[in-house]
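Please, structure for the following, as tokens.
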Amino acid sequence: MTTTTVGRDVEAVVRADAALLEADLDRFLATPAKEPSGAPGSVYGAALRRALHAPVADAVGSKAGQEALRPAPGAPGGGRALRPSMVYWAYRNYRGFDGPAPGDAQDDAFAAVRRAAVAVRVLLKAAVALDDVQDGSTVRYGEPALHITHGVPLAVNTGSWLVAAALAHAADPAVVDSLLASVADGFQGQAVDIATRAPGTRAELARAPHPERVSFWEAMAALKTGTLFRMPLDAALAALRVVADERGTLNEAMRQLGLASQLFNDVTDFVPEFAGARTHEDCDGLGNRVVLELLDSPDGAPPPDPEELTGERLRSYVLGHPGLDRRLLALSAEAAERKRAAKEAVRRVCRSADSAAYFDLTIDRKGHLIDRLHDTLRGRSGA
């Protein structure tokens, strides 16, 4: 990834903001739950540390996904791999690149943004903990999932506690309202995704016309994945009291980035160069856009029986579909176009070239992979 410097060292500002977020997260973890008077050293205190403090530390401290900024000698954050936040991009875009002076009008806004950044990261970690239980995932970003290391009951409890703790930490009523809406959207999208494993929904999807299947996927993905992109930015916009029109523009851009990301995830399940050992892991689920696209029978053959669209039968049907490669290429192109359009929309509200460079560096930790996937599939097809 290349970093554009426009008028100042943008990467240095991004690193400083990301390092501040990591420091704030450390403070959040220092007292995840207060022990009652007289508890330290007691059996209760030991149980609390074992059953809540430890899994909370593991959940929040785990890897966040694609590494964004590698450690750099002398840079903020020391030896940590830093992850830029859209929360801080919003502050830099709307309040400028020079930090607030203590006591001035922007100081309160900066404090609200700092709390929002922590709350967002914690909510994302809570979503990971709960999602891994629901999906039965044993590994997350190369590490054992929380429910593997601590058990399902503690993982569910930890994820639930993190949601409450994050909302309390945000403090600002406008930010809390934004986060509550995002949490509700995320749970709704997850519920529909889980429903794709149930016989009733699977049968209905198998019989639905192609446009309805696509509409189903988009509605689900916009809530399940789009929310993960929209939540950080909308929380910051709420803290900064950004006007409704620009807030709507940015939320729609994040929705599109979320859809692009979910398309990337769905397509890479069929591309060994990207999925590695996890290739074909999700191709037996009707929540995958590629699978939904291929429910139309090839060569005019009778449609598949919905009752048979499970397990290895569905996997064999999809992998043997003559339209598989063509659909993979088309969906990767759709992902790249959604990402491009979203970035253009954000650039139109960037207050400066520095802000645009900050945004590019922040969002391209996955964006560049979307383009690379499309280039890979184009090369494979000879297009």
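The first strand starts at residue 139 and ends at 140. The first helix runs from residue 10 to 30.
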